[in-house]
């Protein structure tokens, strides 16, 4: 039984297939690429208590690579938000992605992306980030013995800068937003032996993030909830969860309707909401993007068409919420549930309130929200 | 099969037994109390992926209480620090206690302590803290619908203050150290309907923390490592691990020699090291306590005699390390292993270096260090 059932890499836009055992970035058509597996013979997991229990549907071929790179990431708890759920007349479950190394769900993508890159001979990675992804990739790169160059907006959370610095990675602070940081990285890639690990510009970060979808189904006893609500910046987690759901349906691990996927954005940066509402297939660049939920300040996600597909194919939707409401829900959730959400996580609670009010979420439905990071990463945000 | 096998509560100093189903603080002789179980019939765990898998040897009697209070705490990964271990000629494993709600191992004690207090009718708790314990108890108390009054030194980490505030708990900032905060709480307890949840002044916080010991043994395939190294302030974790080892030996889950337990302190506050070296049975108050590893700034732990017993009974030792070395090892571990330790966790690496150098840890031994919290809780500590 192969440790990984990875078969090839495929373009979701033009359909071209690529050899999975070469180093890949975007398709020749410019689209992000997706990993495909030979799903025949893949068995339900009974392995370690981490995302690596799903190793057969992950791209890393050698268990020794996993042993070298993993820090025990994944299998985060699904916490019942009893009081909030009860007051809204629903079952409300929160997947706590703060409980992974580096304190954000970005660790999933970094663990799998770095491990696969190591296997394919990469010796250094580079990427732009809003903070958490860069922090995670810098630390996992250090563990793998790789160099890292991480560019982030000067306003990114202090601790994420320090995570890059303490890892020995090269930190580049940029005046502007993540797309400006992307320009800096693009320049560096031209002249240096660095692998481009930017969001969706390599095919394996998303494979790590899709494990959130596998875990939700397994933790519910191999079934889907009615709705999954995800704070959406680059949207890799949402695309990944959608991919996991499709794979699990093909595997026969879940049956019936897919859960409706919901993308939550801040009203200060809502390109996906705007595109979804207007029926567009891609997003337009959001000018003057700004929100307290810093992690989702992405003016024009490269995977916009994949995010919009995921929402539409599952009968989902997109919602924008105000910063003021986000902070109110962060505090309310701590007082009522004892859970200290990150701002992006709190935005999902605000979105659930909106969707329940207007009836989009029905009475008695089961809703899973993703808290994408630990509230403790952001001291001072409420002051 | 009873969910909990709790039988009674016992004084480790005078031997008096107490009814476990009444609300208890210290023994009438002034000693901390320990929970005792009817170990006959207790089975190896196969329950949920949290510390509650050990529910038979935990004090909470009703699974519904667990469902109400738990946030999925426990079963943290044991991460191999390959490079550091190799350079020292040992197997070095780090238990990552940053990966629990509130980002520190204090969540274990809070989850079990609050759940048991809830079951016994408590409606509000009060305690002094160096930050992390108070943060954890305030958030778990909020989840349980309890009031909390938390006193901490003004210098305590910013984010721990904010955790108390956002939980709706009452935060009292004190000029001084944790013993000064203790005086403030003692005054409040005289006039208000609050349960004293100070370190070791109720018997169940330690029960939550002992699960670190159970997990280490289970994660190693039901055996003990050679050495367990613990950053020691109040020392509840160390006493708890010792208690777990003794229980597991009685249960037949581990056999042979107990691991040697090591208490690590900062040279800026080392009352246990001083007492251990002088052969004393209790510690003296450490004047002008000060260290960058804020969590272990405890000038005179109430459980001093239990800590010293645990060290001596297991053939262990106590080591003091300098702040400068702690910061160097924090950075070195991030660069080499990708792991961002908290200062208290980094202190254990410094201690292992010292003990390896002087031969106390032998070539090829297996050493488990406890990283008691997430490095991300302390932005700016390195600046």
TrEMBL record, chains A, B:
InterPro entries (alphabetical): Ser/Thr_Dehydratase, Ser/Thr_deHydtase_PyrdxlP-BS, TrpB-like_PALP, TrpB-like_PALP_sf
This protein's record includes keyword Transmembrane: no
Example GO BP: L-serine catabolic process
Keywords from the UniProt entry: Lyase, Pyridoxal phosphate
PANTHER family, per the entry: L-THREONINE DEHYDRATASE CATABOLIC TDCB (PTHR48078:SF6), THREONINE DEHYDRATASE, MITOCHONDRIAL-RELATED (PTHR48078)
EC number: 4.2.3.1
Official protein name in the record: Threonine synthase
Cofactor(s) it depends on: pyridoxal 5'-phosphate
PROSITE patterns tied to this protein: DEHYDRATASE_SER_THR
Domain Tryptophan synthase beta chain-like PALP span(s) in chain numbering: 69-373
Organism: Lentzea tibetensis
Keyword Metal-binding: no
A GO molecular-function descriptor: threonine deaminase activity
Pfam families in UniProt: PALP (PF00291)
NCBIfam families: PRK08197.1 (NF006050)
Classification via Gene3D superfamilies: 3.40.50.1100
């Amino acid at each position: 039984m192969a440790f990984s059932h990875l078969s090839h890499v495929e373009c979701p836009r033009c359909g071209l297939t690529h050899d999975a055992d070469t180093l890949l970035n975007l398709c020749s058509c410019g689209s992000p690429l997706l990993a495909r597996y030979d799903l025949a013979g893949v068995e339900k997991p009974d392995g370690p208590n981490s995302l690596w229990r799903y190793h057969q549907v992950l791209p890393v071929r050698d268990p020794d690579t996993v042993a070298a790179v993993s820090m025990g990431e994944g299998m985060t708890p699904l916490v019942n938000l009893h009081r909030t759920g009860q007051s809204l007349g629903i079952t409300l479950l929160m997947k706590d992605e703060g409980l992974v190394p580096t304190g954000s769900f970005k660790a999933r993508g970094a663990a799998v992306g770095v491990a696969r890159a190591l296997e394919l001979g990469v010796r250094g990675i580079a990427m732009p980030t809003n903070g958490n992804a860069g922090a995670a990739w810098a630390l996992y790169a250090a563990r793998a013995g790789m160099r890292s160059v991480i560019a982030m907006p000067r306003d990114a959370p202090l601790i994420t800068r320090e995570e890059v610095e303490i890892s020995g990675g090269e930190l580049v602070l940029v005046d502007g937003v993540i797309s400006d940081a992307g320009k800096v990285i693009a320049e560096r890639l031209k002249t240096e032996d660095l692998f481009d690990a930017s969001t969706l510009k390599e095919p394996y970060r998303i494979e790590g993030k899709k494990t959130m979808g596998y875990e939700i189904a397994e933790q519910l006893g191999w079934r889907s909830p009615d709705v999954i609500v995800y704070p959406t910046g680059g949207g890799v987690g949402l695309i990944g969860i959608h991919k996991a759901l499709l794979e699990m349906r093909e595997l026969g691990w879940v049956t019936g309707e897919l859960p409706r996927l919901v993308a939550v954005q801040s009203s200060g940066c809502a390109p996906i909401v705007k595109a979804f509402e207007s029926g567009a297939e891609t997003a337009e660049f959001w000018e003057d993007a700004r929100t307290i939920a810093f992690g989702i300040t992405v003016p024009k996600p490269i995977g916009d068409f994949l995010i919009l597909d995921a929402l539409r194919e599952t009968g989902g939707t997109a919602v924008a919420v105000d910063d003021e409401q986000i902070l109110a829900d962060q505090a309310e959730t701590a007082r009522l549930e004892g859970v200290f959400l990150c701002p992006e996580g709190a935005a999902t609670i605000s979105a659930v309130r909106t969707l329940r009010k207007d009836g989009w979420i029905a009475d008695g439905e089961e809703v899973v929200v993703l808290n994408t990071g630990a509230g403790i990463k952001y001291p001072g945000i409420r002051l």
